[in-house]
């Protein structure tokens, strides 16, 4: 039984973007190309909008993304493949030059922060060279939890889930799931330690937290 292009993409199966003979698959090829071009057009406008024009920037994001709240902010230099497969929850922030290859879905939770030059990539290519010669793809969804911090130049690869409150160290390459409430670093990214009570007292190395200020009692 033939599996349609749409089903293959949704199920994370190997697929080709072009060269289909079935009329339904051909129509989807055309639609996917339209979506990719539309995404580039919107993000061109976004990246060239005046920094102070918050209303226009937010309107562009809301019109493109699969989900976007009023409290989402992404710095300039953002690139996406489709945009409509990206789902951002409240108080999301991304620094400069975010790259999201969203052939598959990307879900990111509340209060998550992303450093500069981060890549989130749902799509890969098979290792066997003949398949790559034929431009074969596969796409697996990425889920990033609430209150996650992803350091600069990190790379998140297809199919990864990152649990709530975790930190991904700068320059890490995340190839497998990362649990909640941990610090994970490296290439490939591995759990270094749990986030615990010492982190309540020290915010960086041996530098102590100013508790009243941090708890907003004196703001």
CATH superfamily: Hexapeptide repeat proteins
CATH architecture label: 3 Solenoid
Oligomer: single chain
Low-confidence stretches at least 5 residues in length (pLDDT < 50)?
A: none
Report the portion of residues in β strands: 15-25%
Q: State the helix count.
A: 6
Class from helix and strand fractions: alpha/beta
* Helix percent band: 25-40%
Q: What is the CATH top level name?
A: Mainly Beta
> Gyration radius, to the nearest Å?
19 Å
Describe the protein's architecture and organization:
The structure is a single chain. It contains 6 helices and 20 strands. The chain has 219 residues and is α/β, with parallel strands linked by helices. It has one domain (5-214): Hexapeptide repeat proteins (UDP N-Acetylglucosamine Acyltransferase, domain 1, 3 Solenoid), CATH 2.160.10. The strands form 5 sheets. The chain has a 7-stranded mixed beta sheet with strand order 1-4-7-12-15-17-18, with no helix packed on it. The chain has a 5-stranded parallel beta sheet with strand order 2-5-8-13-16. The chain has a 4-stranded parallel beta sheet with strand order 3-6-11-14, with no helix packed on it. Helix 2 packs antiparallel against helix 3 (54-64). The chain is globular, with a radius of gyration of 19 Å. The model has no long low-confidence stretch (mean pLDDT 94).
């Amino acid at each position: 039984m033939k599996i349609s292009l749409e089903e293959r993409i949704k199920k994370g199966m190997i697929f080709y973007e072009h060269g289909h003979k079935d009329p339904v698959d051909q129509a989807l090829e055309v639609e996917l190309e339209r979506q990719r071009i539309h995404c580039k057009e919107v993000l061109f406008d976004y990246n060239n909008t005046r920094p102070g024009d918050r209303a226009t920037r937010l309107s562009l994001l809301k019109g493109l993304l699969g989900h976007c709240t009023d409290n989402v902010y992404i710095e300039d230099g953002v690139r996406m493949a489709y945009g409509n497969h990206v789902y951002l929850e409240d108080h999301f922030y991304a620094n400069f030059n975010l790259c999201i290859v969203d052939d598959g879905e990307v879900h990111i939770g509340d209060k998550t922060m992303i450093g500069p030059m981060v890549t989130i990539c749902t799509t890969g290519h098979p290792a066997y060279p003949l398949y790559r010669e034929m431009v074969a793809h596969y796409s697996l969804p990425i889920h990033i939890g609430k209150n996650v911090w992803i350091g600069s130049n990190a790379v998140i690869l297809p199919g990864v889930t990152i649990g709530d409150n975790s930190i991904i160290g700068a320059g890490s390459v995340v190839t497998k799931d990362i649990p909640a409430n941990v610090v994970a670093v490296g290439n490939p990214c591995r759990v270094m330690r749990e986030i615990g009570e010492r982190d309540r007292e020290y915010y960086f190395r041996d530098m102590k937290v100013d508790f009243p200020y941090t708890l907003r009692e004196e703001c």
